[in-house]
Write a structure and sequence with these properties.
By secondary structure, this protein is α/β, with parallel strands linked by helices. It is 38% helix and 16% strand. The chain is built from 13 helices and eleven strands.
């Protein structure tokens, strides 16, 4: 914990040093102008800049970039990066006053908060046209996309949900039958585990335990969140390296025992094409999975800030979100963007899934990582 606090202080001071006393050309930065432009004025200013550079953690940016170029005639240079690569690249470029991205689509909210937002390397921007449409909780940081991971079971033998309470997954009957992507290779999975140790979710887990077993949980760890993690991993949890592979392992037909996993809901779309039997569970106590965001931010030293603002506005519309809207389990924070047939809206998922709190994750994830590595993986 002390290391995390020290890291936060160092990164915040580093950001302050970069942008104090003329560190950045004030005529070009993303936050340089506070004037609100009309849409037509923004389009004209963006076209005058001629191009926009974006770093993205999703490869579908290529399709959006092509459509944006066709619509506005503004060249898009894009790079598809992994979470850590994007964070490192932005840190070096903005911190070193090197031209790079004008805006980014980022993920892994805890690290983004601590290393890029708290340092001032990224600047929040909400298009004026969307301020009355996007729910306030998704405006700062501006949430581009929400993705969910849900408990999904093999439904070949039964269509009835196979658990009603997450503590059932710690019982012998599920030993070795549950799969989850290794959180040491998937930042959002570790973020989920971190959130379970928060006061809110550890209290919900304690209550769920008492509801299922009729007695209070006896703690051997700091709280019920850590206790569930310990028991979940300790019950023969099968760790995979890909949600795609896990979905195929769970959904394949002809299994002797019913299996289940916690993986991205969008994988259910492969039921027919891959001949799988996958069924999500949406009414599990106290959560049916978790939901995590991808953010949109301007960089603090954006060279083409108006083109970036225009592209951000475009991505938040139904047309701009189209490359991501093809699948279930991918949601725009703009309620005006319709969901796929047969899917549920974000408002359905919100009370059923564990959300991310970027600050809590940044401050506590190292503790949870240490616990998982030293306790949950212990043979």
């Amino acid at each position: 914990m002390k290391k995390l606090v020290l890291l936060m202080i160092i990164t915040i001071l580093a950001g302050a040093m970069v942008f104090a006393g003329g560190g950045t050309d004030s005529s070009k930065g993303a936050a340089a102008s506070t004037k609100v432009l009309t849409h037509d004025e923004l389009v004209a200013a963006a076209k005058a800049e001629g191009k926009v550079v974006v770093y993205s953690i999703t490869s579908r940016i290529s399709n959006a970039a092509e459509a944006f170029e066709k619509l506005y005639g503004i060249k898009v240079e894009y790079s598809n990066l992994k979470d850590g690569e994007l964070i490192e690249k932005v840190t070096k470029e903005v911190g070193g006053r090197i031209d790079g991205a004008d805006f980014v689509i980022s993920q892994d909210s805890g690290r983004v908060y601590g290393q890029l937002i708290a340092t001032g390397y990224l600047v929040n921007y909400v298009p004026d046209s969307l301020k009355n449409l996007i729910p306030r909780q998704y405006q700062d940081p501006l949430t581009f996309q929400l993705i969910n991971k849900v408990f999904i079971f093999n439904s070949e033998k039964t269509q009835t949900p196979v658990i009603k309470n997450v503590w059932e997954l710690t019982e012998p009957k599920w030993r070795g039958l549950v799969q989850f992507k290794d959180p040491n290779t998937e930042g959002v999975n570790m973020n989920f585990l971190t959130m379970l140790t928060s006061p809110e979710w550890s209290a919900k887990l304690a209550s769920a335990y008492e509801k299922l077993y009729g007695r209070k949980l006896t703690l051997t760890t700091a709280n019920a969140g850590y206790e569930w993690i310990k028991a979940f991993f300790g019950n023969g949890l099968v760790l995979g390296n890909s949600d795609t592979t896990i979905s195929e392992n769970i959904g394949i037909k002809g299994q002797r025992q019913t299996t289940m996993g916690l993986f991205v809901y969008s994988k259910t779309r492969f039921d027919a094409s891959k001949n799988l039997a996958l069924l999500p569970m949406t009414e599990v106590e106290p959560f049916s999975g978790f939901i995590y965001p991808a953010f949109l931010h301007l960089t603090a030293n954006a060279k083409h800030p108006n083109a970036a603002k225009l592209f951000i506005e475009y991505l938040m519309t139904a047309e701009g979100f189209a490359p991501w809207a093809r699948d279930v389990g991918a949601y725009s924070s703009n309620p005006g963007v319709t969901i796929n047939e047969g899917d549920y809206p974000v408002s359905f998922w919100e009370p059923r899934l564990v959300p991310e709190n970027p600050q809590f994750i940044f401050e506590h994830r190292a503790e949870v990582e240490e616990f998982v590595n030293n306790t949950a993986y212990k043979k």
